[in-house]
Design goal:
The chain is mostly helical. It is built from 13 helices and no strands.
Length: 284
């Protein structure tokens, strides 16, 4: 089935979209660093059965992918301290345009339709998250997050075919869990971590379980499997659906209002995804 792997990536964005209200609840009791580290520690525990027998080459690619993924999260978390979530969402979405541009520098020649679809997706996310209030260093950090994720997307599409999806996902998550735990220890301190279990309510723990088991372990596996069959530019455009699903789940789960501008932006992102799929199908 031609659309099986793009649909798997679309499922990934649905899962990511639901993380928005979950994260909003969790940030009431935990810092962004703690949430990030704990979700990957939970994800690493879920992927434990796949740890045995991972080849050295998979560990190398997993470390590189994990470092890029964590760098993107760290830079985005820093930026969110000073700019709104809407502005962060728009700046981060620019990775959709960065992917084909980097590919062009590396010698690939994506069709013009891919560039048009990528730009359309960025405009759509921009309409959904319009915010003119910025801060130079926070904006630069968020752009660095977008660049790191663009490189992650390119590398995943290039290397995923060389590895078992379960082993590649496990290697990434294990590396991110280790790096994240060190980051959390340095940021929160040992004293807070010792009392942390008693400070967090059951609802937040259930949310962390979703973030770790579903939004990290399961989605990393699906990405590793699907991106060996989907080009990096197309994958990046599909990932632009995340804020669309986030807005939909925010409206449904926590009664957040969607403006007509946001609805128009969401429609443009959907159009971009459909256009990118058509361009991919037309590629010989």
């Amino acid at each position: 089935m031609r659309y099986r792997y793009p649909l798997l990536l679309l499922l990934v964005t649905v899962v990511w979209g639901l993380t928005f209200p979950v994260l909003k609840v969790a940030t009431g009791q935990l810092s962004g660093v703690e949430i990030t580290a704990l979700r990957f520690l939970i994800a690493a525990a879920c992927m434990g059965p796949f740890l045995r027998g991972i080849p050295d080459s998979t560990w190398r690619d997993g470390l590189l992918l994990g470092a890029l993924g964590l760098a993107s999260l760290v830079a985005q978390a820093y930026g969110l301290q000073f700019i709104s979530a809407n502005r962060s969402a728009f700046l981060t979405s620019l990775n959709v345009l960065m992917v084909p541009l980097i590919g062009l520098v590396l010698g690939t020649r994506p069709a013009w339709v891919v560039f048009f679809a990528a730009a359309l997706a960025c405009v759509g996310v921009g309409l959904m998250s319009f915010d003119v209030q910025g801060e130079l260093w926070a904006d630069l950090a968020t752009l660095a997050a977008a660049l790191a994720y663009a490189l992650y997307t390119i590398l995943m599409s290039a290397r995923a075919k060389d590895h078992s999806p379960a082993q590649l996902a496990t290697a990434q998550i294990a590396c991110m869990a280790l790096l994240g735990a060190c980051w959390m220890l340095a940021d929160s301190g040992a004293q807070r971590l010792l009392v942390l279990p008693g400070l967090v309510e059951a609802e937040v723990w259930w949310g962390l379980l979703y973030l770790g088991a579903v939004a990290s372990a399961a989605t990393f596996f699906l990405q590793a499997m699907a991106q060996s069959h989907v080009s990096a530019p197309q994958a990046a455009i599909i990932y632009a659906m995340e804020p669309v699903f986030a807005a939909a789940f925010g409206w449904w789960y926590i009664n957040e209002h969607m403006t007509p501008l946001a609805l128009l932006g969401g429609a443009l992102v959907i159009a971009a995804v459909l256009l990118s799929q058509r361009a991919e199908s037309a590629t010989p």
